């Protein structure tokens, strides 16, 4: 027999449980946020052959997982349109491009970085084009935060002030940087201008999908997952109301993803959140090498 007869890439054995929930804020007449989770798969199955079973690999399936959240901005329902258009565009782009990079080497990782920027630019164009079709949609934009995992590789792409977190062994780590005036001033070390001091700078975006003035700068990062990790994507309705320490405490309970998401949105409601809240959670089971 050949040496590769028991070959199984990690993408065929990692298991991900997913959950998501959106809740309307008390001051919001409608929900302008959307979420999306997809499994991208490839399989090999022998249908008919003259070879014996010992000569062939068993049925084989491998998967990648994508999670996305988008928080739309715009009056009278325009924000909901922006977030919907952005996620729909990404889903259709994944189908049309076809190459899903289910085994990660340096070349595949580089391609994922490039494709993330390409997908985001197409989503940006789609939202901007849609905003020009109807005067009521003028100026609509959206945040867009995405996670793509294959095996133990995790890629995060991000524009706006929705967030991605990694929860590992009781610790919650922020994986994204808010694209807001407040964050920009904090990083640059510059004082808040006098004319801005009465404004809520944490909600004024410096980059968004669908904004005029050119494509947004997409931040793409790569991380390594471990068995038992959770990845949380959320809109600012959660993080404005609930401290990160309380989010970590909730995730420590290790409930099913749907139950965890319900708990997080309920916590935001109890804290008096006026904004909509969307959370998407993936829990990872990654076989230890050699097990």
Blueprint of the fold:
Blueprint: E1 15-23, E2 33-44, E3 60-73, H1 78-97, H2 106-131, E4 141-142, E5 144-150, E6 153-159, E7 163-168, E8 171-174, H3 181-188, E9 219-224, E10 230-234, H4 236-239, H5 244-252, H6 257-270, E11 277-285
Antiparallel strand pairs: 1-11, 2-3, 3-4, 3-5, 5-6, 6-9, 7-8, 7-10, 10-11
Helix pairs in contact: 1-2
User: Span from first to last CA?
Assistant: 22 Å
Q: Compute the CA-based radius of gyration.
A: 21 Å
The strand count comes to 11
Overall mean pLDDT: 88
Low-confidence stretches: 194-199
* SS content category: alpha+beta
Shape: globular
Q: Could you give a short account of the major beta sheet? A: 6 strands, antiparallel
How many H/I helices?
Answer: 6
Estimated helix fraction: 25-40%
Strand content: 25-35%
Order of helices and strands: EEEHHEEEEEHEEHHHE
Task: Give descriptors for this structure.
28% strand; alpha+beta; six-stranded antiparallel β-sheet; 6 helices
Q: How is this structure best described in words?
A:
The radius of gyration is 21 Å and the shape is globular. Helix content is 28%, strand content 28%. Helix 1 runs antiparallel to helix 2 (106-131). It has 291 residues and is α+β, with helices and mostly antiparallel strands. The longest helix has 26 residues, at 106-131.
